[in-house]
Amino acid sequence: MRFLARPARGGRSEELLKDHLAAVGRMAERNVLALPIPERKRLGGLARLCGLTHDFGKYTTYFQEKLPPQEKKPPREEYSHHAFVSALLGAFVAKSRHPQDVEAPLLVYLAIHRHHGYLVTPQEVLPRKEDLRDAPAFAGLTAGLRRELTAVEAQLEDMRGAHREQIVSEMEELGVPEAQEFLSLTSWWHLLPEMRRSCRRLLREGDPEATRRYWRLLLLFSALIDADKHVSAAAEEKSIPRPIPPRLVEDHVRSLKGGEGPESPAAQRLAGIREEVRKECARKVEESPIDELYPAILSLTAPTGSGKTLAALETALRLRERIRKETGHLPRVIYALPFVNIIEQNADVIESVLRRCPGFDASPYDHLLRSHHLAPLTGDENEEEAVEDKLLSTEAWEPEIVVTTFVSLFESLLTNRNRPLKRLHNVAGSILVLDEVQSIPYEQWRLVRHVLTTLSRDLGCTVIQMTATRPRILPHARELLERPERNFAGLSRTRLVPHRDVRTLEELADFIEDIHSPDRSLLVVLNTIASSVELYRMLKERLGLSSYREYGREGADASIFYLSTNITPWQRSRRVRLLKRCMRRGAKPLVVSTQVVEAGVDLDFDEVVRDQGPLDSIVQVAGRCNRSGNTPNPSPVHVVFLENENSRPFAEMVYGRVLPLVSHEMLREEVDEPELHALVERYFATLEERKGDDFSIEYIAAVRELEFDRREGEHITISRYRFIQEEIATMPVLVEINERAAEAIEHLASLYREKEKNRTRIRRAYRGVAPFTVTPTVNRLRKNFPPQHPEIPEHFYLSFDEVRSNYSTFYDMEAGYKWGEREAMML
Questions:
Q1: What is the mean predicted confidence (pLDDT) over 600-629?
Q2: pLDDT tens-digit readout, 745-776
Q3: SS3 591
Q4: Residue 357 confidence (pLDDT)
């Protein structure tokens, strides 16, 4: 019989099962052996075993006859499933080959069992001995598990039939002769409680290997599912890692220098700091022992505007090249940032450097990946195989440098989900650069510390935290700069000025009226969308400013702009680019915004107003004020303390009570920039004393106990982890703002109209509509429900005519989604 892994389909030829198992085994092993990690030979062998046995269950006639052209349905649907029986074979072989290694069978079993789904808590798929007393009836089990085990018994009986000799022969040819003994087992179910007992022993409290076991399982799972998907898709062979010369950064910096130098002393000092930071980081990487740099936890602490992006890139490339020369391994660089809206800016900087690299223009995608939900996936929509190959590579983070978000990174490290775990083996052994690390929620500091330190120890990563404020997330990080505080002492660009008497939006509008001048640019940052929209409209009317709206007024004529997540990502990106151009030409706009401009956005204002919040957030906004140091005297960053009608600070609605309270205590008087470093140090020390660790402790326990997911109960499981804890439900609204948006929305709708839905093309199409999607909270939507899209599930929809209308009920081209009837009537 010709046992197939998959039939001919979509222009691809059929694939024999034994060929598929061999190819997946080789690739899974290669995925692990390429890494400079402890026990890579042992784990590589287990990865190969996973690949060789993961589809063993497809040897049943139930599975083979279900394939075209027969398409015969099995007596029960579960009979054609293959993961459970394959996992049992993998565990049996691991136990036979490694009788003293109680961990190996468990890891192999869990990786194979869930390779088409999400990882679950081991106890969910390992029944107790007493529940199997009536085997093979399995009456004591839950209905789902009973059906699966009953199916395993039927599958084994089927494979013991007419094709047994061929199955055993093919498995022996693959290097798995143990399949013959496995098929002879009459009480195969005894394997399950044995592994459950092993699991209980391994996961006992206080086991120092606990988190290591978590990373080993995730690595095996990642290596397996990535190999399986690549082989199944007949994807191209993975490209060989490419060296990137570190000197490219220096060449790029040299090209930026030219013309007249900075005029003011502060600007001159800042230019000097940029050069010092880069050179000192380079010296550290070149002169320090390699074992202090890789794997390691490092820190780069420098003021805003001091060129940390380029310094970190050069540091990572220099370290990468040194690792290649001394170990033969060429690590991937993963550059993570807190917000989607600043990814493109930093990625553009990195791309401008990489364009100098030989071969970049021929294959830019192999060098740099922008990995976030707004990033387009280039390629011909009709070239189905090319699209699928690109998705595989994108989701697995295969290019040399990956720029992504904290959400994508941490939800790839703390997850049970199949798709993000495809990239875990590519994160292993990498250089991780965490930009604006102070944006990590403080209740997760202990968890993030545990994850990153064990990731470095167990999967061979170097982590570089990069910040102007150095929170106590990684307190033992080795600083790349000898005395980072001296770079802060030499700057005097800004001064924090608290205004405790400014508490209402009316008072804030009065205050801004007093300080606003058409000769000075002004940024106002508020904590909530509602307060920002209200203030924007008040200022526009009071000051008689001309507002900016796409397709309505040219940017050069506008004097007030609005930015927040209440407008589409496409509008935000466009407005930031326009503001940069206008301000370079001398325009002095007033910008009302939420925290979307807080970190990483390269805008430079003469004056800033910020509603109170965490002190590190205030410092980040201060980085948008006199950023280049062109004003000789310190520019004011006004801090106000807004409250709602119930006297509750707006800051508490976003950050909770602790962070604004500690910040409020610290800001009792004016603070000049040279004093900020010490003030922030005191702030983080106070926060460390007051913060609660319950959230972190619960998820660290889940990691150590392999608590991935359970069908029922109130357990804290890894499946529940989200980097951003969304306590309020949101819903997507498609905004047909222009022709490009209309085409993207119609394309997605057309894919849903097709009789046979193509998931690959649908996933790609969702990237196309993301720039034109806003996600208001469900509570806001209830006040002003838009129509649902008739074809795209779970999406609301605003048509082109609705969006562009001056009387739109749902959307304002200046300030975005409208909250309710009262707001809908305000023009």
A1: 90
A2: 999 999 999 988 888 788 889 989 999 999 98
A3: strand
A4: 93
The helix (run of H) or strand (run of E) holding residue 588 is none
Distance CA 459, CA 454 (A): 8
Tell whether the model's pLDDT for residue 66 goes beyond 70: yes
SS (H, E, C) 391-436: HHHHHHCCCCEEEEEHHHHHHHHCCCCHHHHCCHHHHCCCEEEEEC
Question: Which amino acid would we find at residue 220?
Answer: L
**Span of 424-428, 679-683, 728-732, 808-812 with lowest mean pLDDT:** 728-732
Task: Count Cα neighbours of 113 within 13 Å in the Cβ-side half-sphere.
Answer: 24
> Residue 821 has what pLDDT?
43
Q: Which H/E stretch holds residue 787?
A: none
Distance CA 333, CA 433 (A): 7
Q: In whole angstroms, what is the distance from residue 545 CA to residue 560 CA? A: 6
Q: Average the pLDDT over 249-277 and give the result.
A: 80
| Cα 534 from Cα 532, distance rounded (Å) | 5
Per residue in 543-581, pLDDT tens?
999 999 887 555 557 899 999 999 999 999 899 989 999
CA-closest candidate to residue 257, choices 277, 236, 274: 274
d(CA 58, CA 79): 10
CA–CA separation, 506 vs 500, rounded Å? 14
Given phi > 0 = left and psi -120 to 50 = alpha, else beta, which region is 448? alpha
**Quick one: pLDDT band at residue 631, thresholds 50, 70, 90?**
confident
- Terminal CA-CA length for the chain: 73
CB atoms within 10 A of CB 63: 22
pLDDT of residue 375: 53
Helices (H) and strands (E) in the chain, counts: 34, 21
Residue 168's Cβ-count burial label (10 Å; 0-12, 13-18, 19+) is buried
- Which amino acid is it at 157? E
DSSP 77: G
Alpha-carbon separation of residue 63 from 88, 176, 308 (angstroms): 17, 21, 55
**Burial per residue of 490-517, b for 16 or more beta-carbon CB atoms within 10 angstroms, e otherwise:** bbbbbbbbbbeebbebeebbebbeeebe
Q: How far is CA 374 from the centre of its chain?
A: 12
Banded model confidence at residue 382, pLDDT cuts 50, 70, 90: very low
DSSP category for residue 643: B
Task: Please answer whether residues 488 and 676 qualify as being in contact, where contact means their C-beta atoms are separated by less than 8 angstroms.
Answer: yes
As a whole number, mean pLDDT of residues 465-487 equals 90
Q: Measured between alpha carbons, how far is 807 from 826 in angstroms, rounded to an integer?
A: 9
- What is the per-residue DSSP string for 284-329? HHHHS-GGGTSSEEEEEE--TTS-HHHHHHHHHHHHHHHHHHHHS-
Q: Are strands 773-774 and 733-735 parallel, antiparallel or unpaired?
A: antiparallel
Question: Alpha-carbon distance 640 to 613, whole Å?
Answer: 10
| In contact, 16 and 4? CB cutoff 8 Å | yes
- What does the mean pLDDT of the chain come to? 90
Reduced to 3 states, what is the DSSP secondary structure of residue 738?
coil
pLDDT of residue 820: 59
Cα–Cα distance, 461 to 239 (Å, whole number): 21
Write the burial class of residue 541 (CB in 10 Å: 0-12 exposed, 13-18 middle, 19+ buried).
Answer: exposed
Strand partners for 625: 605
**Per-residue confidence (pLDDT) for residue 657, from 0 to 100:** 87
Beta strand 296-301 pairing with 462-467:
parallel
Beta carbons of 339 and 596 less than 8 angstroms apart: yes
Residue 183: how many CB atoms within 10 A of its CB?
18
In the beta sheet, which residues pair with residue 643?
Answer: 649
- Cα distance between residue 404 and residue 339, in whole Å: 9
The predicted-structure confidence for 293-308, as pLDDT tens digits, reads as follows: 999 999 999 988 888 8
**CA 286 – CA 309 distance, rounded (Å):** 19
Partnered with residue 591 across adjacent β-strands are: 523, 561
CA distance 534 to 34: 55
